[in-house]
């Protein structure tokens, strides 16, 4: 499959989606956000994990600011809703998404990274929300997703002061799930994706689609939904086979890495 400004490739059960506008630091134009939605909506059957990467020295410079100058309030509202729809397909699409982050992960680029399930940052990555200094606001779901990762107070500080966090600091505050050496992010993300692709599909589904919903429920409702999901997962033949493999000593034990 070919898409404008995105490279798409399959490696077994892992799909590699690479933002490919390096001359513009992978800034996300209206065309690119639509393409991103199309890529995730048309993911081939059999894809069990996705690696999301950016070509060049930066993961993503955020919104393409050159398109913003002529937009009125109504168009701005629909533009933001378009981002919401696209990033919903990333977060609640067919398979877990592992972002390989390097260089700038800023503005809408950070909003995109926040919609991914795991973020592998190489040492060159840095996080910032320059919206404050540009006179705009987040519009790609960042106001909902980022406080859940780093807390409202940190997001307030980032937006008011333009504070930048390094990849290493990002690990402490909850942005970098993994921290690796420069240029090692893609390889690590792919390794994790291959491991994730080997999980029972129903478990991955529950983690992606049910767990975040439970996390926003009142506890008593959450316990009930957890029990239902647990019952469905354990009844699956895949779970039975995996449990038998462990009990009959064919499956690996849990080890210290
Ligand atoms: C862009 C963009 C962009 C680069 N929109 N064109 N995001 C920002 O405020 C971040 C703005 N970008 C930067 O701060 C820097 O470009 C970077 C730190 C990301 C990279 O620096 P550098 O020195 O490697 O590249 P550069 O020379 O600044 O940029 C190369 C080209 O990309 C240049 O264009 P050229 O025609 O002069 O070659 C830049 O203009 C262009 N470029 N970033 C448009 N963002 C859903 S709402 C989300 C709201 C936001 O995301 S606000 C945050 C926007």
Inertia-based shape? globular
Strand coverage percent: 15-25%
For the largest sheet, list the strands in their spatial order. 1-2-3-4-6-9
Query: Strand-and-helix sequence, N→C?
Result: EEHEHEEHEEHHHEHEHHHH
pLDDT < 50 runs, ≥5 residues: none
β-strand number: 9
Helix percent reads 40-55%
Mean pLDDT: 96
Estimated radius of gyration? 19 Å
Largest sheet: 6 strands, mixed
Class from helix and strand fractions: alpha/beta
C-alpha end-to-end distance: 37 Å
Please, how many helices? 11
Spell out which ligands are present.
3-methylmercaptopropionate-CoA (MMPA-CoA)
Q: How would you explain this protein's 3D organization?
A:
This protein has 257 residues and is α/β, with parallel strands linked by helices. The protein is built from eleven helices and nine strands. A six-stranded mixed sheet has the order 1-2-3-4-6-9, with helices on both faces. It has a three-stranded mixed sheet with strand order 5-7-8. Helix 2 links the parallel strand 3 and strand 4. The protein is globular and about 65 Å long. The structure holds 3-methylmercaptopropionate-CoA (MMPA-CoA) (1HE).
């Amino acid at each position: 499959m070919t898409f404008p400004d995105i490279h798409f490739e399959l490696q077994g059960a892992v799909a590699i989606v690479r933002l490919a506008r390096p001359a513009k630091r992978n800034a996300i134009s209206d065309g690119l956000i639509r393409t991103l939605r199309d890529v995730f909506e048309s993911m081939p059957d059999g894809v069990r994990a996705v690696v999301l990467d950016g070509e060049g020295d930066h993961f993503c410079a955020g919104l393409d600011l050159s398109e913003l100058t002529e937009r009125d309030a109504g168009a701005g509202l629909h533009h933001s809703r378009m981002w919401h729809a696209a990033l919903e397909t990333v977060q609640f699409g067919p398979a877990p998404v592992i972002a390989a982050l390097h260089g700038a992960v800023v503005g809408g680029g950070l909003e995109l990274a926040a919609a991914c399930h795991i973020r592998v940052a190489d040492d060159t990555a840095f996080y910032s929300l320059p919206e404050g200094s540009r006179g705009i606001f987040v519009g790609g779901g960042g106001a909902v997703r980022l406080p859940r990762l780093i807390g409202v107070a940190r997001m307030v500080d980032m937006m008011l002061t333009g504070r930048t966090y390094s990849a290493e600091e990002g690990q402490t505050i909850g942005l970098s799930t993994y921290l690796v050496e420069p240029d090692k992010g893609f390889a690590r993300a792919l390794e994790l994706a291959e491991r994730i692709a080997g999980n029972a599909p129903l478990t991955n589904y529950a983690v992606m689609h049910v767990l975040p919903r439970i996390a926003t429920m009142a506890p008593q409702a959450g316990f009930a939904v957890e029990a239902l999901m647990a019952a469905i997962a354990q009844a699956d033949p895949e779970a039975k086979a995996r449990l038998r493999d462990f009990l009959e000593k064919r499956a690996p034990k849990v080890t210290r890495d």
